[in-house]
Every structure is written in C-alpha cells, then in structure tokens.
C-alpha cells in the first residue's frame, strides 16, 4: 500500500469537509490515505516533515500558494513525491503546471499524473518553488497576509490603494559574472512563469531548466500602466522596455536595511544580505 498524506488548509477555498469527502471517495485501491488539516502558520511544513518520518510516499498540498510553499519547503531535496490540489486565489504554480482547479480532477491527477524533477530556489534559509522577490509585490504580500479578506479582489484592492504612494528603491545585486546597481519597482526571482491568476511576469521561465530568471521591473509612469498590464496577461511583458531579465543560478542582494521579501507570496523581512540560489531537480512534482 502506497502511503499518501493530504494536507488541507481549511482557510483556503472550499470547506474542508467537502474536500475530505472527495478525497476519501476518490481514493483508488492500493493506496493508504490520511488527511490532515493545518491549524497555524507553517503547520503544513511540520505535518509534511512528520509524515515523511512516518513513511509517506506522496504528500499533497491542498490549498493556495502558501500551503504549496510550506509542503515544498519540507520536501525539497527528498525523494518524496508532491501533489497539488489548488484551492487558493492565485494558484501560480498549479496554473503553470496545468493542474486542474476543479478539485475532483486535481485529486484524480494525484494518482494518474507523471512525476517531474523541478528546481527550487533558496532565499537564505527559506525555500521558494514558484516566485520570490522584493519590492512592490513583497510589500503587497505583506499587507495581504494581514488582511482578513482573502481572494483576488481583496488583493487587487490593496494593490490599488498602495500603488500611488509606493516608492521604487535602489538595489545592488551581485550576479555570477558582475555586480550591478539599479533602481527598480520590484525584483522577482522566477522559477516558473507567473505570479498567479495567469499574470505572466516571466513568460519564458521553466521549473526544470536548471536556471532562474532575475526579473527587474524598472520605474514607470502612470501612462505606461495599461500597456504593462495588457502585456502581463497576454505573455509579452518580456518585450517591454521597462523590464530586464538576467538568467543565473545565484544572486546576492547587498542589503543594509530591513527589506520586505516574499517566497511564493509568503512575506518576511530580511535584515542584511540576501543570497538567492537555485537547487536543481530538488522536488518531485506530480503533474498532468
């Protein structure tokens, strides 16, 4: 019997009782399943670590990008397979991997899908599997984490309310070949192609190509916003003069202030230099 552990974030999406019933009813023969629910921040990571110690062979994150991040953080560098049932508002990694947002189809995929070796990214001592970064998106992630309202429209409301007062910052970044200083609205470190909701900030990025992309979005004027938003959602943002990409396996942000950062939308604050490095083929992901 293959041991499968489903970790449900009850705050994200559908009622946990509905999901528990679906998971139980759709489990095929030959699998021993257990269902756990999270109760606090980083609980999914702890449940995953405990499940691996107890012989789990597949761990499935049932939630949004934050739940996916916690499970992936515990599984990066192991041989355990990871599945995703997306129930969040953005679902960036799941959308990139073409994992169904319909929970029935996503549950079935856990048992019928193929497994790929995916890269992960380390930010000092944290793990990111999709997108990480600093600047405006990290600022919004921090505010969104404190909001009682979830969902895309709550996220959009925060973006609109903060946009006009946010100031671009100066960054010094050490790449594998040189050091550069730049002013940026945001810096993203892309492992996949999107933040979520099909916002394609790095259209040519791939989870299993052995490199990440540093995305530098430079300051822009209000008149540029409509075109930038259009390009963001139609996959041509990389053609904009306001954006610059650098491929690499390691970057260091030289930092002498408290800097807002995020890993897959999960915010934190860094005091000191930030080392961002790629972990090639570190995660076994179940995909379509």
Structure description:
With 288 residues, the chain is an alpha+beta fold. It has 2 domains: 2-112, Rossmann fold (3-Layer(aba) Sandwich); 126-278, Tumour Suppressor Smad4, CATH 2.60.200. It is built from 8 helices and 16 strands. Strands 1, 2, 3, 4, 5, 6, 8, 9, 13 and 16 form a 10-stranded mixed β-sheet that branches. A 6-stranded antiparallel β-sheet has the order 12-11-10-7-14-15. The protein is globular. The mean pLDDT is 94.
Gist?
This protein is of the alpha+beta class and 288 residues long. It has helices at residues 16-25, 43-53, 65-75, 92-96, 103-112, 136-146, 152-163, 225-234; strands spanning 2-8, 31-37, 58-63, 81-86, 114-123, 126-128, 131-135, 169-174, 179-184, 186-190, 212-217, 243-248, 250-254, 258-263, 266-271, 274-287.
CATH third-tier fold name of the largest domain: Tumour Suppressor Smad4
From the alpha-carbon coordinates, what is the Rg to the nearest angstrom? Answer: 19 Å
Q: Which architecture name of the largest domain does CATH use?
A: Sandwich
| CATH class value of the largest domain | Mainly Beta
Shape: globular
Set down the secondary structure blueprint.
Layout: E1 2-8, H1 16-25, E2 31-37, H2 43-53, E3 58-63, H3 65-75, E4 81-86, H4 92-96, H5 103-112, E5 114-123, E6 126-128, E7 131-135, H6 136-146, H7 152-163, E8 169-174, E9 179-184, E10 186-190, E11 212-217, H8 225-234, E12 243-248, E13 250-254, E14 258-263, E15 266-271, E16 274-287
Parallel strand pairs: 1-2, 1-3, 3-4, 4-16
Antiparallel strand pairs: 5-6, 5-16, 7-10, 7-14, 8-9, 8-13, 10-11, 11-12, 13-16, 14-15
Helix pairs in contact: 2-3, 6-7
